[in-house]
TrEMBL record:
Record function comment: An essential GTPase that binds both GDP and GTP, with rapid nucleotide exchange. Plays a role in 16S rRNA processing and 30S ribosomal subunit biogenesis and possibly also in cell cycle regulation and energy metabolism.
Keywords recorded for this protein, A-Z: Cell membrane, Cytoplasm, GTP-binding, Membrane, Nucleotide-binding, Ribosome biogenesis, RNA-binding, rRNA-binding
Region G5, annotated ranges: 155-157
Assembly and oligomerization: Monomer.
Cellular localization per UniProt: Cytoplasm; Cell membrane
Start and end residues of each stretch annotated as G3: 63-66
Residue stretches making up the Era-type G domain: 8-176
Family, similarity comment: Belongs to the TRAFAC class TrmE-Era-EngA-EngB-Septin-like GTPase superfamily. Era GTPase family.
Family matches, as PANTHER family: GTPASE ERA, GTPASE ERA, MITOCHONDRIAL
Bilayer topology term: Peripheral membrane protein
Gene: era
Region of interest: G1: 16-23
Record organism: Candidatus Enterocloster excrementigallinarum
Protein's name in the database: GTPase Era
Length: 303
C-alpha cells in the first residue's frame, strides 16, 4: 500500500480544434501500448481514450466532446458535458498550432477554460514546422494572456520533441494516490476479451439451438493499422466437424452473418472501422481439456 501512495494517478483531458495533432501526441506518449476505450469509473459521459502507466504513476487521458461551439440543442448539451468534464479532471491539455493568430474557435475554448479552476497546460504543437525557432517566443507571447496557464510547452508530437518534458509536467500536477487501473489495462487484452465475447454472443444467437454451448472464440490478432482501421482475426472453436459445417453455413452464409453483426458492435465499441476475419476450427472435446479451456479464456470451475 505504501508504494501506491508514492505514485501519482489522475485524469487528464485533451482539448483543441480538429487536426491540431491530439491523436499524434497520444500515440507518441503511449508508444506502442494499445489505446483502450471504456467508461470512466464513477462518473459522467467521459470516454477513456488511453491509459499511460510508468514508474511515476498512471495518467488516464479523457476525450472532451463538444467544447467548441454549440449550433443546436445537442451542441449545447455536449458543451455542458464538456464544461462538467473540465471541472472533474485533474489537468487540462490545450493543444494549438504555432501561430500568433488566435481565431474565434480558440477564443471560445479560452473562455471555457477561464471558468474552471483545473490547471491548464498550453501545448503549442507542430514546432517542427517553424523555420526560425525564435518565432516560438512570439506564439507563446500571443497566447500567454488569454488564459491563466499553469505551463506552456512548445513541442512536436510528430518528431517526438519535448514529449518527455510534457509527461514530466503532467505528473507534476497529478495528485498522489492509488492507480485506477491495473498495469495490463494499457494492453489490448480487455478489448480482445470483449471482442471475443461479442463474436461468441452473435454466433450463439444466430445459431439458436443448432449448436450447443460448445463453442469458444479466440482472437489471434488485433492490431490497428494506419488510416484508423482495426484488423481482427478470430477463430470460432467447436467440438465436431458437423458443427463446423453448421457454423460456416451454406456458401459461407452463416459465418458471414455472424461476422457482419459482430463487426458492427465491435466498431461501435472501438469507435473505429474494423476489418474482421473469422475462421472455424474443430477441437474435439475442448470443454473437457483444462489446457484448451484455459487457452480459450475459460476457468474450468466457471463452466
Amino acid at each position: 500500500m505504501e508504494e501506491n501512495t508514492q505514485k501519482k494517478s489522475g485524469f487528464v483531458t485533451l482539448v483543441g480544434r480538429p487536426n491540431v495533432g491530439k491523436s499524434t501526441l497520444m500515440n507518441h506518449l503511449i508508444g506502442q501500448k494499445i489505446a483502450i476505450t471504456s467508461n470512466k469509473p464513477q462518473t459522467t459521459r467521459n470516454r477513456i481514450q488511453t491509459v499511460y502507466t510508468d514508474e511515476r504513476g498512471q495518467i488516464i487521458f479523457l476525450d472532451t466532446p463538444g467544447i467548441h461551439k454549440a449550433k443546436n440543442k445537442l451542441g449545447e448539451y455536449m458543451v455542458n458535458v464538456a464544461e462538467h468534464t473540465l471541472k472533474e479532471v485533474d489537468l487540462v491539455l490545450w493543444l494549438v498550432e504555432p501561430s500568433t493568430f488566435i481565431g474565434a474557435g480558440e477564443r471560445h475554448i479560452a473562455e471555457q477554460l477561464s471558468g474552471v479552476k483545473t490547471p491548464v497546460i498550453l501545448v503549442i504543437n507542430k514546432i517542427d514546422q517553424v523555420k526560425k525557432q525564435e518565432e516560438i517566443l512570439t506564439f507563446i507571447d500571443a497566447y500567454k494572456d488569454i488564459c491563466p496557464f499553469a505551463e506552456i510547452v512548445p513541442l512536436s508530437a510528430l518528431k517526438d520533441r519535448n514529449t518527455d518534458l510534457l509527461l514530466e509536467l503532467i505528473f507534476k500536477y497529478l495528485p498522489y494516490g492509488p492507480q485506477f487501473y491495473d498495469e495490463d489495462t494499457v494492453t489490448d487484452q480487455p478489448m480482445r476479451q470483449i471482442a471475443a465475447e461479442l463474436i461468441r454472443e452473435k454466433a450463439l444467437r444466430l445459431l439458436d439451438d443448432e449448436i450447443p454451448h460448445g463453442i469458444a472464440v479466440t482472437i489471434e490478432k488485433m492490431k490497428e493499422r494506419k488510416g484508423g482501421i482495426m484488423d481482427i482475426e478470430a477463430s470460432i472453436i467447436c467440438e465436431k466437424e458437423s458443427h463446423k459445417g453448421i457454423i460456416i453455413g451454406k456458401g459461407g452464409g452463416m459465418l458471414k452473418k455472424i461476422g457482419t453483426e459482430a463487426r458492427r458492435e465491435i466498431e461501435q465499441m472501438l469507435e473505429m472501422r474494423v476489418n474482421l476475419q473469422l475462421w472455424v476450427k474443430v477441437r474435439r472435446e475442448w470443454r473437457d481439456s483444462e489446457l484448451y479451456m484455459k487457452n480459450y479464456g475459460y476457468d474450468a470451475k466457471d463452466v
